[in-house]
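Page 47, continued from p. 46.
Same chain as before, 317 aa.
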Amino acid sequence: MIEIKNTELINDTFNQPSRDTFIYAILFDESFSLLSIHNTIIDRLSQQWTKWEQGNILASDVRTWEKFSGEKKAIVHKIWSLVAQKSGRQDDIDIVFDSSRKALKNKLETNDKVITCLNTYCREAIDKQKYDDLVKNWHELFELENIHSIDIPSDLSNIVPLAEQLNPYATASAWRTYLNQQTRPKSNNRSVGRRSLKEPIERHLSEEIDDDTRSQEHVLSADKSEKTTNETVKIECISILEQAVKTLQDFEQILKLICDSGRQVPIDDILCLFPDIDHAENDIKLLIPLLNQDILPLFFSVASFWKDHIRIRYICT
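Result:
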């Protein structure tokens, strides 16, 4: 009796499907259709289908399924459609893998969400390495265990709701600047919410900033930043993220106050929100969920004008 190992069976019908294999001939050559080996192969493939239906699918299986194209995809569908027909199954094999593909996608998105949050907000946390190891170990499980059986570790699960609040604004310069201002030592702290610390718009328009001044300010700023970093108190990731969420709520209130002022809002208030004017338009797009939609055109107009105000002034003088 011919013995076909499971590895060969799965390889020829799933991993590396081909019309030139012995198993393909057993399934579709009429000379084999009445032999017991034909029914045996169908039964074994039906058992494999049942395992997949029960969620016994690895991430590597899903990747294999997603990479099928052209000829291989046609062969796979032909093989497993025959198995469905012979075993009386009503479902399509696509449904089985679509379910696992979605489960894997959701878990990998959660994995990426946690990584983004940790790398953005928790670089200086005393337990950052602990979370990095948890993420790494959890990700490795997808290659070893069934997708549906892998649950997110509880410590990472605690980070997810915080990440969902903070991640949408992770690359917004305005938000990151405000967060840094609120978390650095109070002696150096400034808030965009304090109007007394803002320069009038007229002063901005009349300033002439030469390269030497910019360079000197950059050096002083870097030195100051280094001192601030050295003074930073090391705390845990969860504490950092919880504080960041509270700070985001304060930032949202500042945005709301400015938006509620409508077109009466001082232009200086808008400019002070965006310390890096080159990224202001992108920041506004990222912050749209926190902004009044009616005021968006004004924000974009001010950002666009101020970005080019030196060139405009040069043309007009």
